[in-house]
Design a protein that fits this description.
Layout: E1 8-13, H1 34-37, H2 61-64, H3 95-103, E2 106-114, H4 117-122, H5 129-146, E3 151-153, H6 157-165, E4 169-176, H7 200-210, E5 214-215, H8 233-243, E6 249-252, H9 265-278, E7 294-297, H10 303-314, E8 318-319, H11 326-339, E9 344-348, H12 374-382, E10 386-389, H13 412-429, E11 433-434, H14 469-477, E12 498-500, E13 503-505, H15 507-510, H16 518-528, H17 532-535, H18 541-568
Parallel strand pairs: 1-2, 2-4, 3-4, 4-5, 5-8, 9-10, 10-11
Antiparallel strand pairs: 6-7, 12-13
Length: 579
């Protein structure tokens, strides 16, 4: 009998994202000499003070990509402004840092190819999803081969199990783009005529031949397969850019997010810029759509999407139900239940924990369609799938009976609320697993520190909650910080601070600044109150993922065999009886 592997899994990380978005958005490379790989970004690609390289190809988007107006010089040397937990456009998965995460218990990582054709165009280097993910996949192969002494690309569950058993990091390749339906085709043509069913097996064969084994069929915009979750006005612009129309929404009382209302400065600027650039007008009628309720996408799973997913199941693909509209998620789960096929949520949040309109002025913290309902979470686990709470959870409601005080918004304490919620569903269902999804290099922030000027970062810019911030900062100062002593959690590796040249990273004041600080993040979770018993599922998540993948492979083979057997049964026409 095969022995279970020990360690945790990160189900959503973008190792090769420097090649996405046209290759000129994310500063830094994941490999090579650190002096060159993490060279100062004011030289390339962000320009002086992060304002871009003025001239031909300059993008106004560069001004606001980090959330403010530009950013200070950062990169090799002092590393003063990079990496940080709050960065959106700087490399956070450098190979040395990834190795430190592996030393601290990371045993399986899903490296997801990602792209955004609108951002690529805005940065002056247009790149289609197909060419972008192909470049990322080829570089991922080279990357894992260069470091084959401690990592490897897994093309099957058995290969992943062998890699982990031999002390290596198993890397699983996934894909997450907006126009997966345009692979080997013309995206613009899909706005005029539907995707032909004959194209579906070609897309799947192309992905599989490259080495992809996991997919997120929908990302930030609708496609031929179904509707995307509505939770950011910028994605409405993307939907218009890709599909020629804005989202059609309906009201839902379980969410607080509404399109076109309570816009922050970044979204206002994005809308004005897009309207000028594309001579398009952002809809003004959203305020009249279902007043008093939140907005969710009207579009669910399409017939083409159902056919695509059925074909993907036959090939044993790992299916990620993130970014789907509520209706699409429910319909995909029904399909998975019909076929007894496991699925996962690779970087999720939970709707019950989102704040209400009355509680926060920031739309990103309100309950939205992106967040899974408890019923959806139960269905995912009941299929033998996994829930992986995203590490950056903004700010959440208290988890009832939590062993961790929820008194430092946007920190490890916030993620602990989401993780405990996932554990509560796991206990109810008694099947499946719980991992984590970091979304490093995915234009997403990470948990902030609990000490220093950036403590309780999740309360920043929230007019309804900002007064809580000094109180939460004081509460942290009154408690002992995470000590750097002993070993990394459940390993014999000394727990010392991570370094980059002259900079020393202290999780207490730096937060989760790069992937190499995952061991610090976990030690801090223990420090603030998570118990060994609570962390058992996390350190069993690599095994849970392998068991799910094995089930995908076996179910795929069974579905294919059943289809072949059914096709082989002779069909005789029914004739009326004589007489």
């Amino acid at each position: 009998m095969t022995s279970p592997v020990f360690g945790f899994a990160d189900l959503h990380c973008h190792m090769m994202a420097h090649l996405g978005f046209g290759g000129h958005l994310l500063a830094g490379f994941p490999d090579g000499d650190i002096e060159r790989a993490l060279a100062r970004c004011d030289v390339f690609p962000h320009g002086a003070w992060g304002l871009g390289n003025f001239g031909r190809g300059w993008s106004m988007v560069q001004l606001f990509i980090e959330g403010g107006l530009g950013h200070g010089p950062c990169g090799h040397g002092t590393y003063a402004n990079w990496p940080t937990f709050a960065t959106l456009a700087h490399q956070q998965v450098f190979v040395d840092w990834l190795k430190r995460a592996h030393d601290g218990g990371l045993r399986l990582s899903c490296s997801v190819a990602v792209n955004n054709e609108l951002l690529a165009e805005q940065f002056g280097h247009p790149d289609k999803d197909e060419s972008s993910i192909e470049k990322q996949m080829r570089e991922l192969r080279r990357f894992t081969e260069r470091h084959s002494d401690w990592m490897g690309l897994a093309l099957s569950a058995s290969q992943a199990r062998q890699l982990i058993a031999s002390g290596k990091l198993a890397v699983v390749a996934g894909v997450e783009v907006d126009s997966l339906d345009s692979i080997l085709g013309d995206r613009s043509a899909l706005n005029r005529q539907p995707l032909s069913l004959e194209q579906l097996p070609r897309i799947l064969r192309w992905l599989r031949d490259l080495g992809f084994r996991m997919m997120t069929p929908l990302h930030l915009a609708n496609n031929s397969f179904g509707g995307a979750a509505v939770y950011d006005d910028k994605f409405n612009l993307l939907n218009h850019f890709l599909r020629g129309r804005y989202f059609d929404v309906r009201g839902d009382p379980s969410v607080g997010f509404r399109l076109g209302q309570d816009l922050d400065t970044q979204n206002k600027a994005a809308i004005v810029f897009y309207e000028l650039m594309k001579r398009a007008h952002y809809p003004k009628g959203y305020a009249l759509n279902a007043p008093g309720q939140g907005h969710v996408n009207q579009l669910g799973l399409t017939p083409t999407g159902e056919a695509f997913l059925r074909a993907a199941m036959h090939q044993g693909f790992i299916l990620d139900v993130e970014h789907m509209s509520e209706r699409c998620t429910d319909e995909v789960l029904s399909l998975a239940e019909q076929t007894n096929y496991p699925v996962l949520a690779s970087h999720c949040a939970f709707r019950e924990q989102g704040l209400s309109v009355q509680e926060t002025s920031r739309k990103a913290k309100r309950a939205s369609e992106y967040m899974k309902t408890r019923a959806q979470a139960r269905r995912i686990l009941a299929l033998g799938g996994l829930l992986a709470p995203i590490t950056h959870q903004h700010e959440l409601k208290d988890f009832p009976g939590s062993t961790v005080e929820n008194d430092c918004a946007g920190s490890s304490k916030t993620w602990a609320q989401s993780y405990q919620y996932a554990l509560s569903v796991l206990r109810e269902v008694g099947r499946g697993g719980v991992a984590m999804g970091t979304d490093f290099n995915g234009l997403n922030q990470q948990p902030g520190p609990r000490y220093g000027e950036n403590a309780a970062f999740g309360l920043r810019d929230d007019a309804l909650r900002i007064k809580r911030r000094p109180v939460q900062q004081m509460l942290q100062r009154n408690k002992p910080p995470l000590p750097y002593s002993g070993t990394m959690y459940r390993t014999d590796v000394p727990f010392v601070k991570s370094r980059a040249n002259t900079r020393e990273f202290d999780f207490n004041t730096d937060g989760l600044a790069h992937i190499g600080l995952l061991p610090d993040f976990i030690r801090d979770l223990v420090h603030v109150g998570l118990t060994d018993a609570q962390l058992d599922p996390l350190f069993s998540s690599a095994e849970a993922f392998l068991q799910m993948w094995e089930a995908c492979e076996s179910r795929g083979a069974a579905l294919t065999a059943g289809e072949l057997m059914d096709a082989a049964i002779p069909r005789f026409p029914l004739t009326p009886r004589d007489g």
